[in-house]
Amino acid sequence: MAGKVLILMGSKADAEVMGEAARVLSGFGIPYTLTVASAHRSPARTRMIVSQAEGEGVSVIIAGAGAAAHLAGAVAAETLLPVIGVPLAGSPLFGFDSLLSTVQMPAGIPVATMAIGKTGAQNAAYLAAQILALSSPDLREKIRERRRLMAEEVAASAEEVR
């Protein structure tokens, strides 16, 4: 396997949504670690986890947070590993605030930003898999097969509505 993925979430309340990323990674056989680290409430813990990630074989980091959503940006500031941000709907603004704070990073500290919520968490895992597949032909084939199955599901649905 090309590496593993670290999934960070701002609070335990984010586990249901961020679990979608874990589910996708599991489906591809990609090892991952899922944990809670807050950019605001536990900045030292967040820095420690990120500083140790590369040495522990992590190749990609997925970070999901709601409200101010600085987790992905705080993580990106501490590592050269690719960081994928997942904005979460944890405030009265339904995730729009999270989206803006995740996507509006300064030049030189990129965060690949996904959609708000479960679809974003799933796509974060798919993007992480594609990044890892750059150095893993076996994983690339698994992704190709998943895409083929998705196309078959669409064709079957088309037949059903005919």
Structural features, described:
The chain is α/β, with parallel strands linked by helices. The protein has a single domain (4-161), classed as Rossmann fold (3-Layer(aba) Sandwich). The chain contains six helices and five strands; from the N terminus they run βαβαβαβαβαα. The chain has helices spanning 15-27, 43-53, 71-78, 96-103, 118-133, 137-161; strands at residues 4-9, 32-36, 58-66, 83-88, 112-113. A five-stranded parallel β-sheet has the order 2-1-3-4-5, sandwiched between helices. Helix 3 (71-78) links the parallel strand 3 (58-66) and strand 4 (83-88). The chain is globular and about 55 Å long. The model has no long low-confidence stretch (mean pLDDT 95).
